[in-house]
Design goal:
By secondary structure, this protein is of the alpha/beta class. The chain has one domain: P-loop containing nucleotide triphosphate hydrolases (Rossmann fold), CATH 3.40.50. The radius of gyration is 20 Å and the shape is globular. It has a 6-stranded mixed β-sheet with strand order 5-6-7-3-8-9, with helices on both faces. Helix 3 crosses helix 4, helix 3 crosses helix 5 and helix 4 crosses helix 5. Pfam families: ABC_tran. It comes from Paenibacillus ferrarius. This is ABC transporter domain-containing protein. One of its GO terms (molecular function) is ABC-type transporter activity.
Length: about 250
């Protein structure tokens, strides 16, 4: 029996353009007046024509060197950025925790930001109101509901973001280095929350440099090499290939 697809990426390519020379506003004006030839940006190929499928209920890990494209892959799947070519199909509601305070407005309170985050993820106002007590309890931020986010520490912000993302009951959860933030106790608490998602057969995509966690949680792992080349296989096999690359000195962690 064919398993139902949660996410499918088909022939996806992504290129970033980086300006090789920084110029001040004054210099830009002078160059424009002098009709100086425009400096062409440097193009970096992140992915080229990659295809893979993630099934429902799978814990899918992404490992590889910094800058290889792990976070870019998550952002494409979350719909935050678009591929330059190819198609992405997502089957189910998605919650993404990709960076500290993603989408948070510094002048809004914790409650207002949580409500805004929930609305972006498609949760109606009444449902978010009902969820607020458990969101702030899990985040250990009771008493801070009406405090502006700019008064929160980075740890408080990520606890709130993680709590919102995991308490709205998404079908698919995208996590980028979530176990590297917060204190040890909250990391353990977050880990237990993720394991409860596994019991509910939720789909989880996890970017992490903690290979022990990756091997323990993931059903499959995608190892992203330089220039976006990918290999997908069992956790032990992909982690071994990662270690081999480390020995060869080709990976920067």
């Amino acid at each position: 029996m064919k398993l139902e697809s949660a996410i499918k990426m088909k022939n996806v390519s992504k290129i970033y353009e980086i300006n090789s020379e920084k110029r001040s506003l004054k210099q830009l004006f002078i160059d424009t007046v002098k009709a100086k030839e425009k400096i062409k940006p440097t193009q970096i190929q992140i992915f080229k024509d990659i295809s893979f499928e993630i099934t429902k209920g799978e814990v899918f890990g992404l490992i590889g060197e910094n800058g290889a494209g792990k976070s870019t892959a998550l952002k494409i799947m979350a719909g935050i950025i678009s591929p330059d070519a190819g198609a992405v199909h997502v089957n189910g509601s998605v919650a993404a925790l990709l960076e500290i305070g993603l989408g948070f407005h510094p002048d809004l309170t914790g409650t207002e930001n949580a409500r805004l985050y929930g609305s972006i993820l498609g949760i109606d106002r009444k449902s978010m109101k009902d969820l607020m007590p458990q969101i702030f309890k899990f985040a250990e931020l009771e008493g801070y509901e009406n405090v502006p986010i700019k008064r929160y520490s980075s740890g408080m912000q990520v606890r709130l973001a993680f709590s919102v993302a995991t308490n709205i009951d998404p079908d698919i959860l995208l996590l980028d280095e979530v176990f590297s933030v917060g204190d040890k106790r909250f990391q353990t608490k977050s880990f237990e929350k993720i394991k409860s998602f596994l019991d509910q057969k939720k789909t989880i995509l996890l970017v992490t440099h903690d290979l022990k966690i990756a091997e323990e949680l993931c059903t499959r792992i995608m190892f992203i090499r330089k220039r976006g080349a990918i290999e997908i296989g069992p956790p032990g096999e992909m982690i071994e290939k990662y270690h081999e690359s480390l020995k060869e000195g080709s990976i920067r962690v």
